[in-house]
Amino acid sequence: NGSSDVCSSDPVASLVVRDAEILAGSFDGRVRVYDVRMGRVVTDVLAAPVTSLSLTRGAEAYLVSLLGRGLLLMDRERGECLMGFGREMGKGGLGNGSGSGTKKSREGIGNGGFRNDEFRVRSALMGNDAVVVSGSEDGRVFVWDILEGNVVKTLDHCGSDGPRSRVVSAVVECEAREEWCSAGGDGVVVVWGRDGQL
């Protein structure tokens, strides 16, 4: 975690506001945490453009999607990678502002064909932070176990009967209704039940 690098000339792809903090993920490969009360910023430097950012319930970690590099669960206090999803990411090259933090990183078990190489794809933590869910550029939705990093389910965005969208750009959970949605590049929004049924 570094304390410099307050602004970016690259577009901000994702914002999260929590209490007096603003988290911003941008295409320059940085996640900046602005503390409004204290008037300071902490920057985590990652290896690729940030396309999505979300906090765990307790805000002790955040999930970040990186163009061409999959997803990472990052420890906020230490700036360390806790788990990788969607890519076989080695222990090096993730980086952060302090130049350390990848020693304890864990890799997910394979990628199952997950792709996010060209487009902005939004991912999310769901099921009380038990799973990571993300769209993919092959028209599928991937669900990973957050502790082991393995793919527990893949779903066709439009179901087996419909044409496959080229890219699934976002997933969003509605906890009150125990449903979640996936949005495709074809303009179709699919509403799913908790168990992944249409």
How does this model look, in words?
The protein is mainly beta and 198 residues long. It is 0% helix and 44% strand. It is built from no helices and 15 strands. The model is unreliable at 89-107 (pLDDT under 50).
Total number of beta strands:
15
SSE ordering = EEEEEEEEEEEEEEE
Average pLDDT over all residues:
80
Cα(first) to Cα(last) distance is 42 Å
Given the helix and strand composition, which structural class is it? mainly beta
Largest sheet: 4 strands, antiparallel
Low-confidence runs (pLDDT<50, min 5 residues)?
89-107
Gyration radius (Cα, Å) is 16 Å
Number of helices: 0
User: What proportion of the residues form beta strands (DSSP E)?
Assistant: 35-45%
> What is the overall silhouette?
globular
Residue share in helices?
Answer: under 10%
Strand order of the largest sheet: 1-2-3-4
Draw up the topology in text:
Elements: E1 12-18, E2 21-26, E3 30-35, E4 40-45, E5 50-55, E6 61-66, E7 70-75, E8 81-85, E9 123-126, E10 131-135, E11 140-145, E12 151-156, E13 168-174, E14 179-184, E15 189-193
Antiparallel strand pairs: 1-2, 2-3, 3-4, 5-6, 6-7, 7-8, 9-10, 10-11, 11-12, 13-14, 14-15
Q: Main traits of this protein?
A:
mainly beta; 4-stranded antiparallel β-sheet; single chain; 15 strands; 198 residues; 0% helix
Briefly characterize the structure.
The protein has 198 residues and is mainly beta. The chain has strands at residues 12-18, 21-26, 30-35, 40-45, 50-55, 61-66, 70-75, 81-85, 123-126, 131-135, 140-145, 151-156, 168-174, 179-184, 189-193.
